[in-house]
Amino acid sequence: MTTLVIHHPEEEVAANQKKSFSICCSTGIGQGFAISKAKVAILKLGDKVVILCNTKGFERRAEGVLDKLIHSGATGSGLKRYDVYIKNISQVGYHRSDFGKLTHNGIAVF
User: Fold this and answer.
1) Degrees (nearest 5) of the Cα angle 27, 32, 36?
2) H/E/C letters for each residue in 41-60?
3) Which 3 state secondary structure label does DSSP give 107?
4) Are 24 and 6 in contact (CB under 8 A)?
5) Residue of 24, 3, 11 lying closest to 98 (CA atoms)
6) Which terminus, N or C, of the chain has the lesser number of Cβ atoms within 10 Å?
7) Residues 6 or more apart whose Cβ sits within 8 Å of residue 64
8) DSSP string, 78-92
9) pLDDT at position 14 over 80
10) Does the pLDDT at position 104 exceed 90?
């Protein structure tokens, strides 16, 4: 089973008007994540999604199931952005052991 990790760094919330970890968990939507075509191709509905905030002092983690990916624009370089819809979200204990290597776009797929 594939896992998608989406990172919501706390420092981006105020600085760049990004949605917070809490909003993602309450709405079930991770908004505007840049995901490569190759990574989108391996994701399937029902895959595990880890919602992560690993900002020092704000470490939190939740897990859910991928419900759908909706194209929501593109980066300046043309990489597609997706809204990640997640169901069955539950907060779990924070640990750094299995969320892969996050890209500069704040995601990991493994």
Assistant:
1) 130
2) HHCCCCCEEEEEECCCCCCE
3) strand
4) yes
5) 3
6) N
7) 28, 48, 49, 51, 86, 87, 88, 89, 90
8) SPEEEEEEEEEEEEE
9) no
10) no
